[in-house]
Structures are given as structure tokens and as C-alpha cells.
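From the shared-data thread, chain only:
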Amino acid sequence: MLNNDSAYMIGRRYYIFLMVFLGALSAFGPFITDFYLPTLPSLASIFSTTPSMVQLGLTSSMLGIAVGQLLFGPVSDRYGRRPLLVASLLLFFISTVAIIFSPTIEFFNVCRFLQGLGGSGGIVMSRSVATDCYTGRELAKTLSIVGAINGVAPVVAPLIGGVVANDIGWQGVFFILLAIGGVLLAMCGRFRESLPSDKRSKGNVLNVAGSFISLMRRPLFRMYIVVFGLAYGVLFAYISSATFIVQEHFNFSEMQFSVVFAFNAIGTALGSALTLRFRKMQNAALFSTAGMTLFTALLLFTTLCVESFLIYEALTFMMMFSLGFIFPSVTTLAMSEGRNSVGAASAIVGAVGFVFGGIVSPLVGLGDMMFSSVAVMFVCASLSLVFALFCKRRANLWDSQAG
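Structure, as C-alpha cells:
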């Protein structure tokens, strides 16, 4: 169902622009985290530091994305989507310039936090604007389209990152990120405000932030965001370990890793695009979490018994394919539960995902990375399945009572 109050729904040309724009904004997260992945091993030698210190840059960017969403989401409920989006993109632009000229790894990691903070505005607004304009199955359709576009980002990011890193070094990766930020900032000129003045929250920012409390009192919303966060745990356990496993354990080059990573990202994009095959989003979430649990269990078994890249890659692809279904489905369910405070709901959904990602990323480096990363993915996937089953049972119980 369309939200007829929105001025957005005028013209097919603008609709196409909106889908591309929202998809690009939601892809900010994968670009910030994935784009420089091929350079992680080389950054350790460039800055004369340890792999764990380099991985801390990945964690700091994810924490920045999480904190930024909690800030920009509820504030946008009060002041509108467009002003906050422009402000966040400006912060992203400035922090990326600082990263390019980082003298030390410590300065680099601090700037990565600020870069994540700036990039978070686009991520939280992509969900908020979609929910401003749509409800029900149309919202699920929009988030599936955005999710499919978002799935292309991890395909393009490491491929370009690998090429640029080989040709002009790690700074080239961030020069391209700088250009992307500039393009999105320019696109804001055509972007129309999706939240009219009469639909905005009243009171000061502190009162608006109080909407977090009311949202977290909703049992289904709480469970949905836990499922979403655990899925992000699976994703970032893979992201933070893949470059070391593929390049160092299986002896692939940076470019070969980029191709492998891109191929797996296609699986996620396919899963997102096929989500609407399910009539109910709860069923899509169950399918996704069950698939993740199955394939991470098989991965865990094979890491103990078999030394084969082909088996590792086949199971990883299927795990990423299963993962793709969860983002449109659970996001739709959570945003529908939080429709009265869209910006705050979007902030919580996104922040929980990146907090989980930030927590698991350092864990994959403990001990044997091949085993520890898969073990972390299996634990997160199994827990996500348990919570998805609770969500399904709770939703069915409420439906029967309503009937």
C-alpha cells in the first residue's frame, strides 16, 4: 500500500531516481566497510602495526555507523530527512579527506569512526524514507529493491578496491569513496523531503529520543532487531575474516580475493531479490535463518575435516544466499512495528546490526581464524534461528487472538 500523504509518489521517473538513491544510500555501509578490504594485509605493513590494529579500523567504522544512526534517526523524526542527510554526507566527506592523509594507524582508526558516523545518515534515511512512503507489501517490495541494489555494493566495492589498491595504493580506495560521497551529496539536490511538517515529532530532541523507550517496550520489535543483529554478526564475521582466509590461508591474490568476495555478494543480492516469493515476511526470515544455520554448521564441520577451497566457497556462497533473505524481511517486520517513530525505529535496526558486527569482528582473529570465524558465524546463525522461531510463534499467537 502506498502512503498517499507523501509527495514522493509523483511520476515514474522520480520513482526510479528514488529507488536508485535509496539503494545507493543503503549501500554506504558495505562501501565503507568492504571497499578497502583487499588492502587490510598491506595496511599492517604500511603503518608498521598488527593485523588486529588494522581490523580495529573496521570495528571503529561499524561503531560509528551504529552511533550515527542512533543520532540521526530520531533527530530526523523532528527536523525532517533531508537536512540530516545533507549534514551526515558533509561529515562523511570531511572525514574521508582526513583518512587519506592519516599519519598513523591510530589517527586512521579515529577518522574511520567519524567516516562511519557520516555514512550512517544515508543508511538510516534509506529505511526511513521508504517507510514514510509505503506500508505493507509495498514497503517489503521497496526494501527488497533497495536490498538487491545494496547487494550489488559488496560486488563492486572489493573489485574496484582490489584494482585501485594494485594501481595507486590504499589512498586511491578512499579517493573513490570521496567521489561517491560527492555524488550522493549532489543527488540531494533532487531529493524531496518525505516527512511533511505536520507528520514530524513535536518537542525537543531529547523528547524525540524518548521514542527509543516506547519502541523497545514492544516484544516483537525487540525480537526482530535481535534477529537482524545476529544476521549482521554472521555477515561481519565473514567480512572481517574473508580477506585473511582467502589471501593468506588459500594463497589467493588481492584481485582473486575481490572476485571471490564479489561472487559471494551476488548470492546475497539474489536472496534479497527473491524475498517477495514469500507471501509472509515471517516465513522468509525463518527460511533465511534456517539456511544460515545449516550452511554454517556444514562449514564448521568441513574446516575440521577437509582442506578444500571449493567446498569452503560453495558452502559460503549458500550461506550468503540464505543471508540475503533476512535483510528485507526482518527490516520490513521491524519497521512496520515501529511505524509511529520511523526514524527512531530505523536507527535502532541499523545500530543493532552494526553493534553486533563490531562485536564479532575482533573475535574472528582469536586463535585459528579459519575455525574461529566459522564458529562465530554458526553461533550467530543458530541464535538467529531460535529468535526467528519465537517471532513466528508470537506473531501467530497475536493473529489468532485478533481473529
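Residues 4-9, 399-403 have pLDDT under 50 and may be disordered.
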